[in-house]
Amino acid sequence: GTAGLPGATGPTGPQGDQGVGYCYEHLALNPVPIDTQITTSNISDAFVGVPSFFANTYSIFNGESWYGNQAASNAVTYVLKGEDTTSGTPITIATWTHASGQERQSFGITQQDISIHKIWVEISGEAPDAEALGFSVTLNFINSGCALP
Question: Which residue of 13, 79, 103, 106 has the fewest C-beta atoms within 10 A of its own C-beta?
Answer without folding.
Answer: 13
